[in-house]
Amino acid sequence: MTTDPHRYRAPAHLLAGRNVLVTGAGEGIGRAAALCFAAHGATVILLGRKQQNLDAVYDAIVASHAPEPIIQVLDLGSATEEHYSVLAGQIEDELGCLHGLLHNAALLGPRKPLDQYPLKDWRELMTVNVEAGFMLTKALLPALREAPAASVVFTSSGVGRRGKAFWGAYAVSKFATEGLCQVFADELGSTSQVRVNCINPGATNTAMRRAAYPAEVPTRNPDPEGIMAAYLYLMGDDSLGVNGRSLDAQGG
Ligand SMILES: NC(=O)c1ccc[n+]([C@@H]2O[C@H](COP(=O)([O-])OP(=O)(O)OC[C@H]3O[C@@H](n4cnc5c(N)ncnc54)[C@H](OP(=O)(O)O)[C@@H]3O)[C@@H](O)[C@H]2O)c1
Description:
Elements: E1 19-23, H1 28-39, E2 43-48, H2 51-63, E3 70-73, H3 81-95, E4 100-103, H4 119-146, E5 150-155, H5 168-189, E6 194-200, H6 207-212, H7 228-235, E7 246-248
Parallel strand pairs: 1-2, 1-4, 2-3, 4-5, 5-6, 6-7
Helix pairs in contact: 1-2, 1-7, 3-4, 4-5
Bound molecules: NADP nicotinamide-adenine-dinucleotide phosphate (NAP).
The site of NADP nicotinamide-adenine-dinucleotide phosphate has 27 residues, from helix 1 and helix 6.
């Protein structure tokens, strides 16, 4: 195992023959991860709520001659157990198994002190950032167990390790994400071939970062394409045996 996942250099065909689902694949870090996984040989299931964004990623992947991806439009804020079950059935029928699952989609929510934080926003954010990760992983476990080895990656944040003022439900949801990852990892890691880890992208130039820090010069942070090494590390076989960890995509 490498001690520096952010410096990992992936073999060109790291994910050849693998099926990987990415949530929030239409823009930002999820878009970059989907393109990157496809470029390394994966058939990527592009999950997001905006068809137009997913279509654009689909077109870019097809134009690059990577394996044809699959589009899955799903709003994680309103998805039901039935939606997750149907999705899992489709993946098992069409692909047989799932080798990778990147939980990337998230909402930022309002930047307000908790005593002014609206319950409606709190609930929506917890549904997308936490409940969807639980429900999707639960539904897809049979497909993940069908793979010879599978990797589930949850997306954390610096404020999911140390709470900070005005980060509200977002920070709490990322603590919950770390907890969800640890519980799944402990339950699955010793008894099955499914490993479960967290990744903290660190400050990255996306719409979410620009919304959280409107006064910041966006280019001071790397673009999503520049932080993919650790994502590839966790998704490919070089992280076999790594379980229950929370890694940083930008080191430190
Ligand atoms: N950027 C950073 O500096 C940073 C730092 C630490 C952690 N993170 C984490 O990294 C991940 C990616 O963030 P990002 O910066 O790339 O954010 P982003 O540019 O805002 O992208 C968020 C993605 O989540 C999707 N999404 C949001 N709500 C959804 C819903 N209800 N159903 C389905 N998809 C939904 C969006 O899909 P649509 O396009 O369809 O709306 C979008 O693709 C998040 O988990 C975030 O918390 C980011």
